[in-house]
Amino acid sequence: HNPPGNVVSLSVSSPPDVPIGLYSLTLDQGQKVKLGEFVLLFNPWCAKDAVYMEEERDRQEYVLSQAGLIYKGTTKRIKASPWTFGQFEPGMLDICLKLLDENPKYSSDADADCSGRRNPVYVTRVISAMINSNDDKGVLVGNWSGDYDDGVRPSHWTESVAILHQWADNCCQRVRYGQCWVFAAVACTVSRALGIPCRVVTNFGSAHDTNSNLLIEFLYDEDGNDISDDSVWNFHVWVDNWMARPDLDAGYDGWQASDPTPQEKSEGVFCCGPVPLKAIKEGELNLKYDAPFVFAEVNADVVEYVKLTNGRMVKMGGSSIDVGHFISTKAVGSDERHDITHLYKHPEGSLQEREVFERAKHHHELQQKGEEPGLKVKIKVSPDMDIGADFDVFAVTNNTEADKTCRVMFYARIVSYDGKPGANCGFIEDLTMEVPTGKGQVSFVLLRAIYKPRVNQKLSAQISLQNPLPEPLQNCFFSVIGAGLTDGKILIQNVGTVGPKQEVKYTVEFTPTSTGSRTLTVDFDSDKLSNIKGYLNIEIKE
């Protein structure tokens, strides 16, 4: 360059393996003059960087996109919920760097920790530990109790920005509360902000193996009470990060699973991963990090026992196909669900899948205990069962050679998405019962944006929701947010009471501050229905 006058133009180049973080630029001419500061990040556009991604469309999705979808529900009812990651919103990068500086490894040995930040494997592991607050000054407190009076109900969160700002603005005090999708979404924000490609992943029928034997052992007493430690969650959410694995043999680069939800300790800390998806698929459980735990999440076998009053264990049944279904993430460049189950496991029930499980078991001495049952009960429920509808319980099968007279006890019990049982709803000795009214699926309709969407010009969007219940909803309000749309603020509108089967409409106004594809996210809450979310993709023009 040939700048005019006394101006000197400098170009600074960095090797692809230097630590990320905040750097000072100083000119030394006998006297040191500070020229400024810059932040060095991982670079997915650099072919020699450990996080290099070849396809531009993948980089657009997994690094640059500030909004996405997180999948929840059950294997029979998968529903997408919008989330605003907001990694480029004001202050986010500073907060993400602060998160790295608050980790205990930095406090104990700052030089070693900063040197480790050249490696995305190390940084991802720090992020996994720091998103939860179980061991350190991490971001979120996990809460699955149902009591959230001293914090925010996990289902109310729709964005990472408010969570990270609350943590940073309050001297790194823990933010209450999160569950798995909140932990994963915040981890995704931090990863993308630091330049590590990241996607949020949901596993339906997700096992939590507490003793690392690759079995989920459900244990019940004679009254039907669950006395086991293991569980199978309706769904569980974690993240995949894209990186090279020079610490492993060749062939393990690419997507790595990492889980910031505090479940079990790894090397003395509540964190999990990163572990190559290939290692999980092939049952190679000796590879770093935490391969046995992640393998069990997607591939454990389920065994059920009854513990009799005399201490004898009777096997009720089990399954090798209940765990690890419809592993999902948002598709690149669209709002479609992308099924990535094939990256985590071979087809369920296939010879390859069983061979992998047996190979994985070789690392663990597995012993199934208990007597085989003489009678089996099978329950069949329609996947389209309506709220308040009856369902039938079929049928008792006699596997012995003698006639049996049996008394059938039937319990209905609330179970949270993480498999933890709640209070009994009822107990009868018949084969048909009525299910109490509960929460069904609600369709959120976001109508088209009113007026042409242009940057720095006021824009309106209309939102509508219909009450599906035969009773009124009280204390109804909408919360609206969008990166580059609402200026980092949550727009809240109280709409009062919505009558039975009534439709409510609300027009929201905002001024976009950034061009390009943006996502407006809406959350609806009331006394009887909550966590009802919708979104609208908007292309903002100049």
UniProtKB/TrEMBL annotation:
The keyword Calcium is assigned to this record: yes
Cofactor: Ca(2+)
EC number, UniProt record: 2.3.2.13
Cofactor binding: number and manner: Binds 1 Ca(2+) ion per subunit.
Superkingdom in the source lineage: Eukaryota
A GO cellular component annotation in the UniProt record: mitochondrion
Name by which UniProt lists this protein: protein-glutamine gamma-glutamyltransferase
